[in-house]
Amino acid sequence: MKAMRRFTVRPVLPEPLRPLSDLARNLRWSWHAETRELFQSVDPARWAATGDPVRLLAAVPPERLDTLAADRRFRLRLAAAVDDLTDYLEGDRWYQRQEGSPPAAVAYFSPEFGVTAALPQYSGGLGILAGDHLKSASDLGVPLIGVGLLYRHGYFRQSLSRDGWQQEHYPVLDPDELPLTLLRETDGSPTLIRLALPGGRLLRARVWQARVGRVPLLMLDSDVEDNDGAAREVTDRLYGGGSEHRLHQEMLLGIGGVRAVRAYCRLTGHPAPEVFHTNEGHAGFLGLERVHELGTPAPDGPGLDFDQALQVVRAGTVFTTHTPVPAGIDRFDRSLVARHFGEGAELPGIDTGRVLALGTETYPGGDPGLFNMAVMGLRLAQRANGVSTLHGQVSREMFAGLWPGFDAEEVPITSVTNGVHAPTWVAPEVLRLGARRVGTARAEEALSVGGPERWDAIGQISDQEIWELRRTLREQLVEEIRTRLAAGWRQRGAGPAELGWIDTAFDPSVLTIGFARRVPSYKRLTLMLQDRDRLRGLLLHPERPVQIVVAGKAHPADDGGKRLVQELVRFADDAGVRHRIAFLPDYGMAMAQKLYPGCDVWLNNPLRPLEACGTSGMKAALNGCLNLSVLDGWWDEWYDPDFGWAIPTADGGGDLTAKETERRDALEATALYELLEQRVAPRFYERGREGLPDRWIGMVRETLTRLGPKVIAGRMVREYVETLYAPAARAHRALGPGQARELAAYKERVRSGWAQVAVEHVDAGADGPDGDGSPAQLGATLALRVRVRLGELAPEDVEVQAVSGHVDGDDRISGATRVPLKPAPGGPDLDGRWTFEGPLALDRTGSFGYTVRVLPSHRLLASGAEMGLIAVPAEAAGQESGVLLR
User: Fold this and answer.
1) Distance (Å, whole) CA 871 – CA 879
2) How remote is the C-alpha of 830 from its chain's centroid?
3) CB-based contacts of 18: which residues, under 8 Å, 6+ apart?
4) Which of 264, 296, 396, 608 has its CA 20 to 30 A from that of 187?
């Protein structure tokens, strides 16, 4: 019989053990070794089964709790853990030591958060990155507020059928069994967030809080009894349902998330955020809610109109894009979005047409019938970034149509390369080895804050210690693989007689390669299977064998991805190789924390440049695992042959015919096999005079000392604070109501008058260093005089620039230098034209060219490209539009 209702009965802890509850409900335990060890000592067997303090305490028998309460040594350990957490939460950290006035608070929105396996609210890299961002912000003392949704079924649990087909399972998550508390009003009632839906319906959501160290994570939950059935299911599954379901999720995340932040700050006294950071476009509606807030009349005066409020919102918003392909962006039918805004629905004070305009694909090739969430995110944020240097470049090219007339390199999208939270992903054995050399406090600081000088001590660790560490981690991984193989085969219906081979599967002395990630087609899970005989030769080599462990989930609706999983599983099922290659189902954080440290080589072979960053290799590197990867994402930026290998690529990305795709994959697979056969395996098995693989150990040392300080999330969050959050806060503070009205009026005036702006004539005199008038010598100076028609605008509304640099065969300028020209005295001529003038130095040899252009200019603009307006000489002007010097 099934229960008609389910709930959790919590234990009553003895008074001396009450602090255990506080430790359990702050997720710092998930990356703090001493606190985990304390919980393990409560009940080692139950801890091994759960790995979750909340579930552990709910399962421990009362007599065991009474025993611990009477144990003086345990009480002292508990008191020390509580004191350590208090110091962590209340003491000054990196952020509190920053000069100036950094943001009082930052709100960080993401559709998923991977903080710990005990709170399964993530599907892959985006969520893990978001969780690492929160944890590193906590370590650094950054006053962040995380905002997401609480999915009652999470993403999904993965198993395999007998024939290797992925099967999905959706266990129900009870918030009372999770490390969460409900946000409540002062009268004790749950805080409710309400959104209006078409047809007079309401979407209500409660707000659950997770404590991620110093950072609160607010998670909205629509499973509220007063909701109708459809509304209750809005937060049922991560990335599930059809378009309207997804739209409701993203409205709840963005609009409801802002309301949840306001409620949290009101109830707790937390400073209100000055900066709002949207992690991918799913939360883009947060900008509309803030526009709506600013349009509401205040006690001290009227609200701002849409355009005025938009300036304030943009100034304090940061948008991070994670996808390098348009197909990866959420897009909705415009009519669906229109039904959900305006009178009778959400944000009734905002004209629906203005909402739709924010998401319109106005660039060539865009679909005018669709509403693009990333496009809206870019239009609502004054600052945007990609997640690696290469991805920033790809993003500028992908979204260049929003800034017509500008070269892709000038599109205002920068990059902050992702990082990973080292205390979460570094194996305890690695941390202990570092702590023995430099002390626990310094080792922890190196992992959380970073800085090359903090990692140099690794150079003092002996080769023997490093090699023993690597073998220990590999042995632990082999045990984990065997345990998971046995469980997976039993789940597929295998009996005990079929499982004897698992006892000797994998070998702690064999070169171990890891490959684990989501399974979209561009990540090419099965590239290694291109030549199966050659792969078998690698796996079964008599002197230099290789073993490969693979894991990953395909999206439930992606049958193509499921076929790739099945193809890999069927190969790994072969009795001739199954002791050397394994697919482990149900990839998640708990598995990953064993997988990354235990592998010798981390393999990544996506289609370049479709990997935005690819942080799994970073987590492996922090444990001394070497990377073998296509030059994509972060590896394109930091690859060095001293600590890894680059798989050569055949250009083309995803825009190839089927035949071209087949040829590209064959070429890159061949390159992969050759690297493994000729360079990777020989290096691993090569032995020096002391019987150690000296050159391999040298690469491990280089990985730790040189990559370590780069790949940590502490470095990433510091970059966000210094290059995005702090400038956004300053811009937000500079836009009071008066300045917002001024900037909105300026933009309206410039847009309406820009059609009259034109560059009509360019004169170039010369003042060479030898006085001979020759302009084509290095060191000469051109005296530019440019006549510009401004129409109703004034010289102070614009900046006239000379743009110069090297030119290619098509006269395209590269490595450009931009020099502002000044208005000449005397005002406009009789025809209303203004003259701008200034020197242009010929500061480089070779093919050289220049042109001139006019951009909007205002002290409150973040850049000249912000408005997407530019005036350049007409091509018909010939040489007057620029002078080419060869």
Assistant:
1) 17
2) 56
3) none
4) 296
